[in-house]
Task: structure prediction
Amino acid sequence: MHVNIIALGRMSEKAYAEAAREYEKRLSAYCKVSVIELPEARVTDEDSPAAVRAALSSEAKQIEKHMAKGVNIALCVEGRGLSSEAFAEKLGALMTDGESRVNFIIGSSHGLDARIKQKCALRLSVSQMTLPHQLCRVVLLEQIYRAFKINAHERYHK
Result:
């Protein structure tokens, strides 16, 4: 299986970047992982809904170039929360169904454009709490790793 993390913004915090690399390394035993970092659109007037919509639309155009193949999963606040076991079951079912590529999409600080969410098979929430986007990526990578460990019946998940 090939897992893509399509993320708006770069990992600038050293601790988060190191943690992400660690989980990418661990995941390499189970799947091929690619992280695709896309630049966030600049919003000149944060208070303007039109400016935010324009930025989200611009970001959506970038994202769409990377989500053509495979199953797309949007990470968003209104997404469905899954337990680690349910998430592992979902990934396992995708592999059983013959899916070879899963794209996890993490939006910018303004979220994701509605058309991206509509193209996704699942809208996923990693927490009901608000997390920094860089930490969200680390949590996602850890949960993907945990899912592979659960599905392989290996010791890690408690």
Q: What stands out?
A: The mean pLDDT is 93. Residues 80 and 132 are 19 Å apart (CA to CA). The two ends are 24 Å apart (CA to CA).
